[in-house]
Amino acid sequence: MKKRFLIILLFVFIISLSCVSAVEDVNQTIYDDTNDLVSGEDTLSVSLSEDELSAKDDGTFTALQEKINNAGAGSTIYLENDYKYDQGFSSDGIVINHKITIDGNGHTIDALGKSRVFDIHAYLELKNINFINGYNDVSSFLYAGKYGSYQTSPTINIDSCNFSDSTGGPAIVFGGEMEVYNSNFNNNNGAIRGSCTHLTVKDSKFSNNYADDGAAIYYYPWVTSGKLNIENCMFTDNVASNLGGAVYASYGLSSNIKNSTFIRNQAKNGGAVYSPNYINIIQSNFFNNLAKEGGAIELYKGNVLNSFFMFNTAEKGGAISASNSLIDSCDFNNNDADIGGAIYTAEPKITSNNWLTAIYNCNFKDNAVSQSGASIAALGATNVYNCKFSQNVNHECIYYKTHENKNKLNISDNKIDSDYTYDIYYNSTNSFDFKTFLVFENETVAPKDAVTICKLYDKDGNAIRIFNNKIYESGYDIKAILTNVDDSSIRYECSLGYFDEGTGGYRLRCDFKEGVYKVTGYLSSKFTDNCDVIDGYLTVGGSVLNVPDVTKDYGGPERLEITLTESGSPVANVNVNININGVDYSRTTDSKGKASMAINLPVGTYDVIVTYKDISTSAKVTVNPLNTKTTLVYNKNSHNSVTLTATISPATVGGKVTFIVNGKEYSAAVSGAKATYTLNNLAVGSYEAKATYSGDINHKSSSSTSVKFTVEDVKIEVSAPDLTKYYNGPERFVVTVKEDYKAVVGKNVTINLNGRSYIRTTDSDGQASMAINLNSGKYKITTEYGGIKVYSTVTVKDTVISNDFTKIFRNDTQYYATFIDSQGNLLKNTQVKLNINGVYYTRTTNDQGIAKMNINLNPGTYVLTATNPASGEQHTTRITVLPSIVENHDLTKFYKNESKYTLRILGGNGKPVGEGVTVKLNINGVFYERKTNASGYMNMNINLNPGTYIITAEYNGLMASNTVKVLPILSAKDVNMKYRDGTKFELKLLDGKGKPFAEQIITFNINGVFYNRITDSNGIARLNINLMAGEYIITSMYSNGAALANKVTISS
Question: Where are the chain's structural domains?
Fold first, then answer.
């Protein structure tokens, strides 16, 4: 009856609460809490103070729809259980028609691949919810307005939610405003797609999403004021089949990406980010992204600032493809492309005189291309200022090609560190404005030979190639003007149309009269009017050095070959100087004018300058790493132990070898062109092994073919009996190994003894043995073969038997030792050597093999070493000699108190002597004798004046010394005073324990007159001084004989 009454009462409360909500629009908080349900009962409870509702539901979409419908506008729903799609529910999802907040408390909403989750028509805030298995052709989890419907689309806020495994449209489609925080999107058919006014995404992660465009975020606002903000987000392994592997950001007022990381995203264009409109990308990182164009980013209007790009790949623009953009203070490392290893600046798609891409203050390192522009390929108008280029490979660092006059290339203040023969390729007929220098070299050439006569540089010293080898035909050329210095009427003007890739300059065939020519010229004005010319001199004929470049493998036979001619004839028997990387060598030409030099250098590229008199020429020596061959064999040590041996040729190799056995890797260093690794305790089964040599500075890597071996199940017996032997005896430790009851022949057995491992090989009987040459003692020994360990004990017995002992000084205890040979026989009547305290003695054993030695040493600890002449064993015995005078201590006492000097005498048996034993004492040069009492103690009174004394006691030839300090009991200070100024002389008296001694008579003697005074409670006695001016001695005396003298000085 009571239960029914409570239920009715609760029902009335709920109806009342609903009425209040309807009239006053009071916010509610609704709880779904299955944990608070009472089994077998339907219970509804209302907390009137909290305005919260809890009710059990069945965790279906229908139940959640009902809960949302019943919640008031602006209220919060807390989920206390998971929800799943239920059959028959609309595939458009749960409808939200009024403002609401849903806090999932970490619970999951599972659409089971049948439905969208929420169809949103009002403000919605979602927290702490896991969304999985959503499906709808338009959107899989959340839908909030169509494209272009931003005026009627709701606002969505999402915090700490997870969206995964959608199979229909994108996870979220919306048309209004949305903010996303601390959320994860994984394995969705597109994560976020919005035509909204504003989208903010912070502190979130997107992985393994896929779509046609913008697999993680597709942003396409229908209003020009739209803004996209992405901050501190992670994008990993997202794939778009068309544009923007992770992010597609189009139109709107602006898009911003800050402090975010993009890893392994892919698309056709813009592997990580694609933006055809204004975008800012700031302080972000891009790794291993891939696209055909713009491996990480493709943008047509925007800024990329303070960002890092590494291991991105594309056909055009390994990291970035850009137009009309600013790229400032970024780092580009190890990016790769066909054209533009790091950056590709595309020709504009919109005709504009202001369409310019600016690249400022960037660093380019280790970028590579297969065609053009190891760092930058510029097809549009491009400025490159204050950038650094280093170790970029395969081609020139900057490549420029366009025929649009408005698409200028401007370069300034760049530092290019490259091994390529030129740094900038200006492959265009466009004129340029940046400063250049045309430098004519000083060269010597034989008649009719070709020579590199000039090179072009920018103002920063970077080498420029300005056209291909056919372009000069249309008048875009470099002119060289040669005037004979001896006859100015001999003059030649030539077009330099051939660019030499090997030297990085322009070549000229010298069909001229022999002589010396001043060389000047000019760059066609069709290119620039801003080019300075630096003249040079060309010698045709005369002495000519010909030194071809050398390319060889490390250790190869190729040599540096030098030919010296004079007007075409060889110059013999003269020295030429060869400078390689700053080191000078000298060689002499032969009858054909030739000299050569062996090149024994490690792998690398070396600059060579060869000089004869006043002429010189340069060459390059390139030493390439040597090919290697790796061969792998294996040897079975036991049924389950295999040693792998890799042999590498040639024999000059170093480095390491990695053995791969059934997928697992093992490493070993190369020594003597070989590397070995032993695999122990292998399980029964089949194995496949391969060896890979890592290579070193002079050698390339190589791999062996695979070898296969099998470990079979074998019964192994290892016998290793305990061994007992005398020191230096002939017995050996023996191990017997059998497999399947047969002796194992020629296999290694590991014996671990005394912390060291020894390898022994079995003989024809399957036995391996080891000599035991250890000091006497017991040793644990472990024998190992085929994964089996056997534990044994080796006992080495003494051939000198003697125990440590302790004795009293000069008692009857002596040293005894028994000597036997290595077969255990007594050594009778044999001389043996004993060493104690650094002194050697010889003693002869008796018929029991025993040697004796008296020990008469002073108290202390000694080591006696006995040498056995038969076995060679040296045995040590520790001997402790104890004093017979004990309990003697230093003494500190006050003058004539009761303290005494005490000691105790021990007899030869270590026990105290009895009464009447005489002890001699010496203190302060006076000798005394005292006798012990019944307990062996001796006492001596000390009545000496205050001071420090040494007391020495002697008994049975043993002496022991101590320090005795006698402290004074009287103390006073000298007095300096004026005549009758009232000063008193004060003396302090202490008792036998050092405490003030009161009410004692002190006698003072001053100027021949005696005075008695009594000490006060502080032990102080005082005497008035009324004497005439002068110096006086005052003597203070106490009845036990203590006396003290002081000086009293009185001035007038």
Answer: 27-167, 197-290, 292-430, 431-541, 544-624, 629-711, 716-797, 800-882, 885-967, 970-1051
